[in-house]
Amino acid sequence: MGQPSVAEYALSRIAALGIDRVFGVPGDYAFPIDNAVEVVPGLEWVGCANELNAAYAADGYARIRGAAMLSTTYGVGELSALNGVMGSKAHRLPVFHLVGMPSERIQRLRLITHHNLGDTRYDRFHPISATACCVWAELTPDNCIDELERVIREALRQSMPAYIVISQAHGVMPVIGTPVQGVPLDEVKRQRSDATELEAAVATIRAKLAAAERPVALVTALTARYGVAGKAAELVGKANLPTAQTPYDKGVLDESLPQYLGLYSAEASQPPSVREAVEQADVILDIGGVLLTELNTGFWGSALDTGRAVCIHETWVRSGEKVFLNVAIEDVIDALIDTVTPRTATVDRDDPGLLELTGSGDEPTSSASFYPRLQRRLKAGDTLVIETGTCMFHLNGMRLPAGVQAEGQGLWGSIGWGTPAALGVAMAKTAGRTWLVTGDGSHQLTLNELAVMGRYGVTPVIFVLNNGLYGVEDVISERGHGYDDLAPVRYHLLPEALGCKGWLSLRVCTVAELDAALDAIDAHDGAAYVEVLIPGEESQPLPGEVIDRGYKVQTPVVG
C-alpha cells in the first residue's frame, strides 16, 4: 500500500485522538479534505447547514470527546466559521480547523479566482483565521508529518483550536516520510512535570490545606478540558473540602457530591450561603483558575480575596508570591490524591434539593413551572446544553441530579451556539440523552441545524422557550424597543418541515400540557422538540445601578 495523501494523513492522524466525525460544509478548494473523509477508516462526514453551525457543532463535540475536527473552504468558508472557532478558543477546546485553499499553481501564476479579493494575494486570510487558534500550519508533502506533530502537540498542550491549511494540489499528493501512529487522547501526555517543582508545589498546597480552618475548593471548567474533572472530584472528596463552582463552570462537577456547596457568584450565589463559605474561607484551592468575569462575580461585586488562593493552573501553580513552573495539572492532582490529609470536620452545606413545583392544570406555562419539572426528568448520564440567554440564569439556581453533566458558553456568549452544539454533543456521546434548553431568540439564529439532526438520526430533547423576545437584551435595556422583538415562528412545525422523521413535536401553553409532554418524552426513545410558551412580561429590566456595574457607562459619582 502506498503513502497516504496529505489530506488523508492529516485526517487519520488527528482522528487517532478518538475523533470519528468531521463537521463542515463542502467547498471546491476543500475537496481533497472532503474526499479524504470518505476514505479514512472510522471517519464520518457531518454536513452542517452553514460553516458557523459546523464550528458550533465541533465545539459541542469537543466538550465530550476532548477534541474535534472542522472542515471549511478558503476565505468565505473559514471566515464564516470564525466566530464559532473563537468561542472554542475562549472555552479552551482543541478544535482542528482544516481549510482547503487554491493550488500553488494558481498562486504562482498570480491568477485571480473566486473567494478572493481580486488582488492575487492568497495569504490574506491566514492571520485572521490563525487569530482564533493557538497554532497553525500550511501542510505540504515534505513537512506534513513533522508539522502535524507540532500542531497537535501545541493544540493539546494549550487546549485550544488549531488552524491547518492544505492547498488543493498538495492535498492529493502523497506524504514524504514515515507516518506517525497516533494514540487516543487519554493516552497523550500533554505536559511533563519537573520533579523538583512538582514536589515543592504539592508540599506547599498540602501545608496550606493542613493549616486552614475554613478551606474551600473552586473547581473550574479547565479540569474538564484537560481530562481531570473526575480526578478533581476525587481530590475534593478525599480531602473532604467544601467545594463550589462559578456559573461558567456549572456541570463540570457532579452536584450530588457530599462536599458540593453550590454556585458562587457573589450576591447572585446559589444558594446564598455559598457566598459566605467562599469569601470567608482562609484558603481557597482554585483548581483550574477561576475566571473573574462579570457573570462569575455578580457584575464584579465579589469580595473574593485572591491573596488567599492557591491556584493550580494547567502548567503552573501559584501560592501567594510563590510560583511553581512546569507542573502539569494532572500530576499535581494525582500527587495530592495520594498524599493529602482528609479533613475530619463535617462539610456544612445548604442543600436546596429539588426546585418547588408550581402551577397546575390550565395555568399558563412559565419559567417557574418549567424548570422544576425539567429538573425531575434529567437522569444520570444525561447532558444538558444551556444556551446563552435568560435560561442560563434560571438554570444557575437548579441543582443538577446525580450524574448529569451541563455545557454552556457563559464566557464567549454567542447566542445561537446551543442548537448546533447540541448536535455535536449528541454525536459525541455514547450513552445518555442530550437535552437542550434554548430561548427563541437564540434558536432563530441556528434553527436550520435541526435538518442536520434529522438527516443523521440524532435524537436530542429540545425545549424552545418562546417569549417572542431577545430575552437577555430585553432585560438589560429599557422596555419597548422594537429591536428586541422577534419574528413570529411556529416552532413546533419545524421538525417535520425540516425532514426530522419520527420526532415528537409539541407546542405547550398550559402546565397540564407541559406535564403531558414530559410524560410523552419519557415514553419516547427518539428525538423530542417542545415549544413552551413563556409570558413576555416575565422579562423585566435589571435595576439601572446593576446594569451600570456591568457596563460602566455612567459618569462615576464624585466623592
Question: What is this structure, in a nutshell?
Answer:
This protein has 3 domains: about 5-185, Thiamin diphosphate (ThDP)-binding fold, Pyr/PP domains (Rossmann fold, 3-Layer(aba) Sandwich); about 195-340, Rossmann fold; about 365-540, Rossmann fold (3-Layer(aba) Sandwich), CATH 3.40.50.970.
Report on this structure.
The chain has 559 residues and is of the alpha/beta class. It folds into three domains: 6-187, Rossmann fold, CATH 3.40.50.970; 195-339, Rossmann fold, CATH 3.40.50; 367-538, Thiamin diphosphate (ThDP)-binding fold, Pyr/PP domains (Rossmann fold, 3-Layer(aba) Sandwich), CATH 3.40.50.970. The chain contains 23 helices and 19 strands. Helix 8 (144-158) links the parallel strand 5 (135-139) and strand 6 (162-167). It is globular and about 70 Å long. The mean pLDDT is 94.
List keywords for this structure.
Rossmann fold; seven-stranded mixed beta sheet; 559 residues; 3 domains; six-stranded parallel beta sheet; alpha/beta
Per-chain topology:
Elements: H1 6-15, E1 21-24, H2 31-37, E2 44-47, H3 51-65, E3 68-73, H4 76-80, H5 82-90, E4 95-101, H6 104-108, H7 126-131, E5 135-139, H8 144-158, E6 162-167, H9 168-171, H10 195-211, E7 215-219, H11 222-225, H12 229-239, E8 243-245, E9 260-263, H13 273-279, E10 283-287, E11 309-312, E12 316-319, E13 322-325, H14 329-339, H15 367-377, E14 383-386, H16 390-396, E15 405-408, H17 418-428, E16 434-439, H18 440-446, H19 449-455, E17 461-466, H20 471-475, H21 494-497, E18 504-508, H22 511-523, E19 528-533, H23 544-551
Parallel strand pairs: 1-2, 1-3, 3-4, 4-6, 5-6, 7-8, 7-10, 8-9, 10-11, 14-15, 14-16, 16-17, 17-19, 18-19
Antiparallel strand pairs: 11-12, 12-13
Helix pairs in contact: 1-8, 3-5, 3-17, 10-14, 12-14, 15-22
